Amino acid sequence: MKRQIIDKGVHSTFLLIALFSIAALSLIMVFLFIEGIPIFDQITIKEFVFGQYWYPTDDPTAFGILALILGSVYVTILSGMMAIPLGIMTAVYLAEIAPPKVAEIVKPIVELMASIPSVVIGFFGMVIVAPFIQKLFNIPVGLNMFNASLMLAFMAVPTICSISEDAIFSVPVAVKEASFALGATHFETIAKVIIPASLSGICTAIILGLSRAIGETMVVLMAAGGAAMIPGSFFDPVRPLPASIAAEMAEAPFRSEHYHALFAIGIVLFLFTLIFNLFADYLSHKFRQVGEASL
Amino acid sequence: MIKKRLFMQKMCFSFLRMAVLINGAALAVILYFILSRGWRAISWEFLTQAPRDSMTAGGILPCIVGTISLCLITTFVALPIGVASAIYLNEYATQGKLVRIIRLGINNLAGVPSIVFGLFGLAFFCIVLKMGVSVAAGGLTLGIMTLPVIIGASEEALKSVPNTYREASLAMGATKWQTIRRVILPVAFPGIITGSILGLSRAAGETAPIMYTGAVFFTPDLPTSIFDEVMALPYHIYVLATAGTNIEATRHLQYGTALVLIVLVLGMNLFAIILRSKMRKKLRI
After folding, report:
1. In a domain, B14, yes or no
2. Cα–Cα distance, A64 to A46 (Å, whole number)
3. Are the Cβ atoms of B6 and A112 closer than 8 angstroms?
């Protein structure tokens, strides 16, 4: 009898602790809004999101973050253009054609890529890649959108690769064998059977990879150049959302307009990644494969 | 016809191999530059002294100690909560709305950008809970950020415990809690530790969450309590590379600090990977 009471108590305790993650997520939202909302006493949401000028310390001040949003979006798209093909191709190679011995080497490489701290990658972009591309393309500044995207792609590849690999790996062997039996080559099977069958998993991988890129701070802080203007070319310096927060928080007086505006940028960034993650979650549940039946 | 198709296959497979080579080359280039330029800065003095002459000379001892103390607080926060959450999700929970919501919460927490954790830590731990910029505030912020990784790793470890273990223990008349404590946790323990070390190594390299919650530009003193502010390796790299008085002159210190951080992080990873492969061999027998 006593044992059962203890058991019930333990059960509820674990449930309470498991709710901690939701509590933390809610607290994060609450505090972003508490500190971010006051800026909208000064300007409207529309002026904030679509305003072209970000002069937080000038007189008069201007708190328009369009240039920062576009900076983030462009950098993410450009890094996606590099990381998505690389990540998926590596995943296909690992799951389908790598001999076990080679896979034993390639897998740790991908894991190592994921484990290098972002500040080191940002530092590398700053001191090695910047002078290199400055010379290579003969441009005035090496710290620009292209540099930051390249570094971000390096960070997004492991995420995209490992999640896609799981998806490709989970395609039932029977489906693959059926394709072989019809006379398809290995490559035709990959392109026309395996990839379509694991498409929802691959899409989830892409979304999570891009979500990581858009939220990454140190790389864009150190390698993107930091100019708060709408970029006209790949080689213009940009100032994505996370970089603005990280660079300016130190100089923003406590609970000033600038301080509240930076928290409001935090809200925008949070909503961006929240939407990405909810969408990834929706995709992976909606199109979850249960054996061959759902193909 | 078949020849053409096989040629096509050969060509596309070599594209795939090229993609793998590009990844490997990128990793090799980064490691090469950090290693070859960093090792010259490494000396006994560099590892055991505080920075001198407004950070243009001396060592990085306060940064190493700071990063380790932040990591310790992170462990104290994230490990118990993470393992307990995983036990609930894997051992107690039945599929339903509540579990779906908890999982959604964990997934979204994992996706929150690191700088947003920093903002939250600043507003909540530093200001509302009046911790100020301190090891405690920075460690708590990192702890919440690491939580989803530890939950995921622990769940994976719990899942790998065969169901027959649970059934055998329950059949002997043990309660669920006794089964978890005496049968399941001991078997899952190495897996939990491996995954947790991987999560903590990521926390050790993070900069954005501690920029405004735990780490400061310069403090020569080692922390004596959890409410002291500290220097940290990742933040030190950022500061030296972007805001130092003489950025070019301290370049070797920047490479050196980056090398120490990479060795710390990869060392933790390597330790975890060796632990994992040892454990796998043990399970196979």
Report:
1. no
2. 9
3. no
Give the CATH number for residue B122. Answer: 1.10.3720.10
CB distance A212 to A155 below 8 Å: yes
Domain that holds residue B84: 44-284
Q: Which residue has the tokens 């307990």?
A: B84
**Concatenated DSSP letters of A85-146:** HHHHHHHHIIIII--HHHHHHHHHHHHHHHHS-HHHHHHHIIIIIHHHHHHHHT-S-SSSHH
Residue B92 belongs to some domain of the structure:
yes
Non-local (6+) Cβ contacts of A151 within 8 A are A121, A122, A124, A125, A129, A219, A223
Contact B111 A215 (CB under 8 A): yes
CA-CA distance, A205 to A91, in Å (whole number)?
A: 11
B67 to chain A, any CB pair closer than 8 A? The answer is no
pLDDT in tens, B153-201: 999 999 989 999 999 999 998 989 999 999 999 889 888 998 899 899 9
Cα A177 from Cα A173, distance rounded (Å): 6
Task: Flag whether residue B171 sits within 8 Å of chain A, measured between CB atoms.
Answer: no
pLDDT tens, residue by residue, A101-147:
999 889 889 988 999 999 999 999 999 999 999 999 999 888 999 99
Which chain A positions have a beta carbon within 8 Å of B262's beta carbon?
A: 116-117, 120
At which residue do the structure tokens 């090695």 appear? A128
Q: A50-87 in b/e burial notation, b at 16+ Cβ within 10 A? A: ebeebebeeeebebbbbbbbbbbebbbebbbebbbbbb
Query: pLDDT by residue (tens digit) across B50-96?
Result: 888 777 788 899 999 999 999 999 999 999 999 999 999 999 988 88
For an interface test with B, give the residue of A32, A121, A123 to mutate (most B CBs within 10 A).
A123
Report the number of distinct structural domains present in chain B.
Answer: 1
Domains of chain A and CATH, by start: 38-286 (1.10.3720.10)
